[in-house]
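**User:** Here is a favour to ask of a fellow structure person. Please take any protein you like and set down a full record of it. No explanation is needed for now; the record alone will do.

**Assistant:**
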Amino acid sequence: MSERIKCLIVGSGPAGYTAAIYAARANLQPVVYEGIEPGGQLTTTTEIENFPGYPEGISGTVLMEDLKKQAQRFGTDVRFGVITRLDLSRRPFAVEVDGNPETIQADAIIIATGASAKYLGLPSEQRFRGMGVSACATCDGFFYRKKDVAVIGGGDTACEEATYLASICRQVYLVVRKNYLRASKAMQERVFATPNIEVIFEHNTQEVLGDDNGVTGMLLRSTSGDERQLAVDGVFLAIGHHPNTELVQGQINLDEQGYIVTHHGQTNIPGVFAAGDVQDPHYRQAITAAGSGCIAALECERFLAANPL
């Protein structure tokens, strides 16, 4: 017999847990499935200093544990497992967990599966994640004040991160594999007008260099085959994000980048909501994800009150 859930939350980052806190306090008896990365991307961040309420900073893992405990305090059922299929064609929605054909039924669903930063795929890059390799300058740039860093990428995001880092770092190298920037003209002009940004065209990153204390540099190779080492304290990836929307492709409206389209947290399917980075191509911050989780839960509460099954 299928289990019936009033409010199912798919994902356990700041959006999912905040949605759970609000849903639980509204007596929606939310169930959270944590997914393959409990706590989301923040658990790979060593120190967070821009989340309100933590004047001394806090590790991503501890912050997620705090949010989880707060959600559970109000009665949220947090489960370890992966949602492997959603059927959103009718309410209650059919949900498959870990490939088990015994489906769950959900009156409403909040999707908070996040977005994954794209990496180069280098073993050394993975080794130094959280030790000098980052995919978020806004999150981690503070730790590199008056130091030398590199940004990899040539689009608007890369240029935005490079100019942001240039305001706090001594030197910023923008490593671009092509012989031009893909960013808008306005962003290009900002980069070229910033004296402590050096653009290195037609180079690919071969390896991130470092030791037990973290990143010390990177090995670059030009399109002509020449190699050079760059001494930097931090490497920032800005080659894009991949929204984790595989579960809902073909069922929910997505934008041209693959992010879920929402209006006040509501998707185009009544009863299905989305929160966090999976519907946010612009900001991708823990605090904005948490805020959108609040919005999705409040709208979910109103929807269920108006549309009982």
